[in-house]
UniProtKB/TrEMBL annotation:
The gene is NIPAL2. It is found in: Membrane. This is NIPA-like protein 2 isoform X1. The keyword Secreted does not apply. Keywords: Membrane, Transmembrane, Transmembrane helix.
Length: 395
């Protein structure tokens, strides 16, 4: 609608109708012309504003689902850890699979992951991925209740910094919400920006995999970089599958597109290999090292993937992009402060001097294995004596 030119009792304007039909210099006469045209302009303004409100509403739903899902995941992990610690202290050594509390944790984790999955259907990837820091904040809070861990000053500072980063990311996130369909995904796949990004990612992944497998390099950066590169494929496919399912629920059937099932296979396979490498990293390094580095790598990879594939910063101002990235850096810093110098809570068991055990001739000290419920097997007295005799003969 072009600007309205009042001419006494006349109202002159250009009117655009659907289909590209334009009526230039349309004049409306009568005493109620101004009132009718005012209502028309008001309806037009309301319709354009309501579109922005719908986009903000979708982003808000996505943020709430992601925060709730990550918080449930943090509760689930602490519940499972609490069950393992409690069962390890008992004499009967009952398996954790028989614990109802452990199964409650599994159910909560499933609900949380489902919330994260649905969140990608409402909001952009670059907004949902950094919200994973809420699981770290929630884990620090829940551990005070379930595991009775102490509250440190770095926890309070890190939580405040991370929440400030979340606020900046939500405030300055891209407002342009796009409906992802099968046709659009096929168009995104052939964009030159994504093709260049895909080629570079494949080259880097192959080089890292060569050092990991052939050279047997298990450095934490190499392992978690492999996790992050797989995570980029995960977030792209999760966003595609979730958005196409939402479009199907709204009445626009997307399940007939082959790209839907291709993205579903990519999502499942990338998740499996991602968990494999992440488990390897947790076995080799402590959680205080794995958690912050993995969060930084994963978030950075997800943001780059969202930009390269879905072009989610398109139309955003330089200030919005700068403040969004600053919010991401604050969330990185908050996670680092929360996980910094946090000790693992294991069973409080002491060292055992076998020289004090009756009937044992060996006198040495061993450290109990933290991830097992027993100290291992001891040599029989005869075997110990025989081994000592052999050593004397060789001397």
């Amino acid at each position: 609608m072009c600007p309205v030119v009042p001419l006494g009792n006349l109202v002159q304007t250009d009117v655009f109708f659907p289909g590209g039909i334009v009526v230039p210099n349309l004049r409306i006469t009568g005493s109620t012309a101004r009132k009718e045209m005012g209502l028309l302009l008001e309806n037009e303004t309301y319709s354009s504003t309501s579109g922005l409100k719908d986009e903000d509403k979708n982003n808000l739903w996505g943020v709430l689902l992601a925060i709730l899902g990550n918080f449930l995941i943090s509760i689930s992990l602490n519940l499972q850890k609490y069950v393992h610690l409690r069962l390890a202290c008992r004499a009967d050594q009952r398996t954790y699979i028989k614990s109802k509390l452990w199964w409650c944790g599994i159910v909560l984790m499933g609900i949380g992951e489902l919330g994260n999955f649905a969140a990608y259907g409402f909001a952009p990837v670059i907004l949902i991925a950094p919200l994973g820091c809420t699981s770290v904040i929630g884990s620090a809070v829940v551990s005070l209740l379930f595991l009775q861990e102490s509250l440190r000053a770095s926890d309070l500072i890190g939580g405040t910094v991370a929440i400030s980063g979340i606020y900046l990311m939500v405030t300055f996130s891209p407002c342009a919400s796009q409906e992802v369909t099968g046709v659009k995904i096929q168009q995104y796949l052939i964009r030159w920006e994504f093709m260049l990004y895909l080629i570079l990612e494949i080259i880097v992944f192959c080089v890292l995999l060569y050092f990991y497998k052939a050279k047997d390099k298990k450095h934490i950066v190499i392992v978690l970089m492999l996790v992050a590169l797989l995570a980029s494929a995960t977030v792209i496919s999760v966003k595609a599958v979730s958005s196409m399912l939402m479009a199907t629920v709204k009445g626009k059937i997307q399940l007939t597109y082959f790209i839907f099932y291709a993205m579903l296979v990519i999502m499942i396979s990338s998740c499996i290999f991602q968990v494999k490498f992440l488990s390897q990293a947790k076995q080799l390094y402590s959680a205080t090292e794995v958690l912050p580095i993995n969060f930084v790598f994963f978030t950075t990879s997800a943001i780059i993937a969202g930009i390269a594939f879905y072009d989610e910063f398109h139309g955003s101002s330089f200030l919005n992009v700068l403040m969004f990235l600053f919010g991401s850096l604050l969330s990185f810093l908050g996670v680092f402060l929360i996980t910094r110098n946090r000790e693992r809570r294991d069973l409080q068991v002491s060292y055992i001097n076998f020289g004090q055990v009756p009937g044992k001739k060996i006198a040495s000290t061993i450290q109990p294995v933290s991830n097992r419920l027993s100290y291992g097997t001891l040599q029989n007295e005869d075997d110990s004596v025989a081994s000592q005799c052999k050593e004397r003969k060789t001397d």
